[in-house]
């Protein structure tokens, strides 16, 4: 799709907007990816896809979108589900606050007069977890409202079109609002996102295939690599935890439910204790693991052994887990704890890092000869 040489120095001029929009929409009509939420008109389904796509790759969302809709085919079905079921369906997708917010939003809508789904950007913004981008996407795609939706891909495309090195949110929203196609706002927003995802990529944008090259200032100036400047990320804070795995002779292990607020709220995980020193010596860690087991009321019946360290990255946190297996007599199951056998499916939500520990435990039991590679009993 070779374009003529650029004659413009600052994005499309007002009298060029018609051609600019037509060119991008034609590209979208011809080349957009066939994704399950494309062409969707049910606002609930659009909302689900948009929330899932926040901070998550399309390939990952594809693994969840269909099964989520099978489990919660309507807003009413989601509103009626309990939070454990909702978090379980979201398990592995990360950023669990999104699932809790989606659940709260469904319940909020159910309480509205007539249970009517909000139809405007303004009313959508009142829902929990629905920010500017999500409200813009749902309002434009689901209801044809002429509003922009600026995600990371759109930010990059706009910055390059206008060669803006550090585009601020207010500028982005103003420019994006001016560009929206009045007849096809939903397709327009998706077309800009698609362009950013497929052509105007962060590294090595394919300008020769770009439908809006004619109006692109960064292409004209050869400054694609400079616009936009990278977002300065706060370095992740490293934090270490001791995990205590209470294990019975039969191999069952105990999980406890995390508090309702904070990191991984409401999910089921091994009891943990934050370590002041990441390289806490083995003997000290073992003593603390046994202390923690006893503080939970467990009767310790053997020596503790350590599993390989597990690492997991949260948004601003690099977590290191040191898991200790402590043989115990089985405690009574209470409201805040459950027992399970590693490797067997369960119906409650478990964080990814804990799944890694459970996999290691299951492997140890299935292949006893390999146990030395996972667990060791330090002297
Ligand atoms: S792909 Fe190239 S020409 Fe198209 S918007 Fe991006 S930088 Fe500009």
Describe the structure.
This protein is of the alpha+beta class and 379 residues long. It has two domains: 14-221, Endonuclease III, domain 1, CATH 1.10.340.30; 237-376, Nucleoside Triphosphate Pyrophosphohydrolase (Alpha-Beta Complex), CATH 3.90.79. Helices cover 41% and strands 12% of the residues. It contains 15 helices and nine strands. Strands 1, 4, 5, 6, 7 and 9 form a six-stranded mixed β-sheet that branches. A three-stranded antiparallel β-sheet has the order 3-2-8, with no helix packed on it. Bound molecules: iron/sulfur cluster (SF4).
Question: What is the number of E strands?
Answer: 9
Q: Round the Cα radius of gyration to an integer and report it.
A: 26 Å
Alpha-beta content class? alpha+beta
Bound molecules: iron/sulfur cluster
Cα-to-Cα separation, first versus last residue: 68 Å
Series of H and E elements:
HHHHHHHHHHHHEEEEHEEEEHHE
Number of domains: 2
Percent helix range: 40-55%
Q: Give me the CATH superfamily of the largest domain.
A: Hypothetical protein, domain 2
For the biggest sheet, the summary is: 6 strands, mixed
CATH topology of the largest domain: Endonuclease III, domain 1
CATH C-level class of the largest domain is: Mainly Alpha
User: Globular, elongated, flat, extended or rod-shaped: what is the shape?
Assistant: elongated
Taking all residues together, what is the mean pLDDT? Answer: 90
Tally of individual helices: 15
């Amino acid at each position: 799709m070779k374009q003529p040489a650029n004659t413009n120095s600052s994005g499309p001029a007002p009298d060029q907007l018609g051609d600019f929009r037509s060119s991008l929409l034609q590209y979208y009509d011809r080349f957009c990816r066939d994704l399950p939420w494309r062409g969707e008109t049910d606002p609930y389904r659009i909302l689900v896809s948009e929330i899932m796509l926040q901070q998550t790759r399309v390939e990952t969302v594809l693994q969840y979108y269909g099964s989520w809709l099978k489990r919660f085919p309507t807003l009413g079905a989601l509103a009626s589900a309990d939070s454990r079921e909702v978090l379980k369906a979201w398990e592995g997708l990360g950023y669990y606050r999104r699932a809790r917010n989606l659940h709260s939003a469904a319940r909020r809508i159910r309480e509205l007069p007539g249970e009517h789904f909000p139809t405007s950007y303004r009313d959508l913004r009142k829902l929990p977890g629905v920010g500017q981008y999500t409200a813009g996407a749902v309002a434009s795609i689901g209801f044809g409202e002429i509003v922009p939706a600026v995600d990371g891909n759109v930010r990059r495309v706009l910055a390059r079109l206008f060669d803006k090195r550090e585009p601020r949110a207010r500028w982005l929203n103003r420019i994006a609002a001016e560009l929206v196609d009045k007849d096809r706002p939903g397709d327009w927003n998706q077309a800009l996102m698609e362009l950013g995802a497929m052509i105007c990529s962060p590294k090595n944008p394919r300008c020769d295939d770009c439908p809006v090259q004619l109006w692109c200032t960064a292409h004209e100036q050869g400054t694609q690599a400079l616009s936009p400047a990278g977002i300065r990320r706060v370095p992740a804070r490293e934090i270490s935890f001791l995990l205590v795995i209470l294990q019975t002779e039969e191999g069952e292990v105990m999980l406890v439910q995390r508090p309702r607020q904070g990191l991984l709220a409401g999910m089921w995980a091994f009891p943990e204790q934050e370590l002041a020193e990441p390289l806490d010596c083995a003997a000290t860690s073992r003593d603390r693991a046994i202390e923690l087991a006893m503080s939970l009321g467990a009767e310790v019946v053997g020596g503790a052994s350590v599993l390989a360290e597990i690492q997991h990255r949260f948004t601003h946190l690099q977590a290191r887990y040191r898991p200790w297996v402590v043989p115990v007599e089985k405690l009574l199951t209470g409201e805040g704890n459950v027992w399970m056998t590693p490797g067997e499916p369960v119906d409650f939500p478990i964080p990814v890092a804990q799944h890694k520990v459970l996999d290691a435990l299951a492997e140890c039991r299935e292949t006893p000869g390999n146990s030395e590679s996972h667990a060791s009993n330090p002297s």
